[in-house]
Specification:
Elements: H1 3-12, H2 17-54, H3 64-69, H4 113-125, H5 132-145, H6 153-167, H7 172-178, H8 184-198, H9 203-206, H10 219-224, H11 235-243
Helix pairs in contact: 1-2, 5-6
């Protein structure tokens, strides 16, 4: 139905001008929307026809535009020589054998006199009061009694003596050197303490005992331990000192 027919029928029906205007505007809006849809459909068809004509496939022919987007074929390369591999020429151990030394019983006569002398010198240097020859006998008896097997008996012998040196007491000389030298007052106090407890006095080192006229202990230390310096003219003290 045309717009004029619509207006005529509205007038005949007695519609007011306002109603007629609203109807006309609605019809025009509907026609505009229809025209827009038709134009969009025509545009889609044009684009489809454009895509269809862009590429014309005849065998392997393509358009210039699509050919530019295709990946290039790989360029030929100069063949490279193979990289030489490193060859390990380290000889392998024979099959069935390991690098570990086999364990064996102690050899007869081991430790030898030379081994004993060497370890005795080490013990002497360490200040250990140790009889290495006796240790060698104990070492052999221990190995034979327990049927010991060892890969290196010399190393086992050195470890045995090293442990024995650590446990051994010090020689008198080593003990003297190890002890810090006490002061004179400390020595006098130690000797006075022993004299008061058991009556022993080291006359060789300390001289006459307390109470003797020639006693060398400082008077202050004598008084500290309850001893009084003797009178030089007391004949009984001389007699006691001579008896000491």
């Amino acid at each position: 139905m045309s717009l004029a027919d619509t207006v005529r029928r509205l007038v005949e029906a007695g519609a007011t001008p306002e109603v007629i205007m609203i109807a006309v505007e609605a019809i025009e809006a509907e026609r505009k929307a229809l025209d827009a849809n038709r134009e969009a459909a025509r545009e889609r068809k044009r684009r489809q026809r454009s895509r269809d004509t862009d590429v014309t496939v005849t065998g392997q022919d393509v358009t210039e535009r699509d050919a530019a987007s295709l990946p290039l074929p790989p360029s030929p390369q100069t063949p490279q020589p193979p990289t030489p591999t490193r060859v390990d020429n380290t000889p392998l151990p024979p099959e069935g054998r390991s690098r570990r030394k086999p364990s064996r019983p102690i050899e007869p006569g081991f430790p030898t006199d030379e081994d004993i002398a060497e370890q005795q010198a080490k013990a002497r240097t360490a200040g250990a009061n140790l009889d290495v020859r006796a240790q060698a006998e104990r070492f052999r008896n221990h190995a034979e009694q327990n049927d010991r097997r060892c890969a290196d008996w010399r190393a086992a012998w050195r470890n045995w003596i090293a442990a024995a040196i650590e446990r051994a007491p010090k020689t008198a000389l080593a003990a003297t050197l190890d002890r810090a030298q006490p002061s004179d007052a400390d020595r006098w106090r130690r000797w006075l303490r022993e004299f008061r407890q058991n009556g022993h006095w080291p006359s060789d080192d300390a001289g006459p005992r307390p109470g003797h006229p020639a006693c060398r202990v400082p008077p202050a230390l004598l008084a500290e331990f309850g001893f009084s310096p003797p009178a030089a003219n007391d004949p009984d003290l001389f007699a006691k000192g001579a008896a000491a």
